[in-house]
Write a sequence for this structure.
């Protein structure tokens, strides 16, 4: 009698990876030791857990659409206080940058940081009435 009573077709198959196949999750990070998080980083992660859960429960397209609407409204509306809408978008993007900082590469960090800084500059110009 066979070792398993299950049908052989229902046993999980061990597949060999195809040549050129790449894991979408990226290379395994378990081999590289991670430095301990600073107290400020631990505070940020701990206090961001609740808002991240709320964002995760929202429909997937809602947050990008809302951020796009706030960005366009902040740039198009004629009153200088529209810069506050740009400030909301800049703070949100800066918060996401701070949370993802340890896992993104240096070029990604630079591009994201420049985007947040450019948005903050537009916010200041908009609030000053020069843009």
């Amino acid at each position: 009698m066979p070792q398993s009573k299950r049908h052989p077709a229902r046993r999980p198959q061990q597949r060999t990876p195809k040549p050129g196949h790449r894991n979408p999750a990226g290379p395994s990070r378990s081999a590289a030791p991670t430095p301990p998080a600073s107290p400020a980083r631990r505070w940020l992660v701990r206090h961001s857990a609740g808002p991240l859960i709320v964002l995760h429960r929202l429909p997937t397209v809602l947050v990008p659409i809302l951020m796009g609407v706030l960005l366009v409204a902040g740039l198009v509306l004629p009153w200088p206080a529209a810069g506050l809408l740009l400030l909301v978008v800049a703070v949100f993007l800066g918060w996401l940058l701070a949370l993802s900082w340890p896992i993104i590469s240096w070029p990604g960090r630079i591009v994201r940081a420049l985007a947040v800084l450019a948005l903050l500059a537009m916010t200041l110009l908009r609030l000053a009435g020069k843009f």
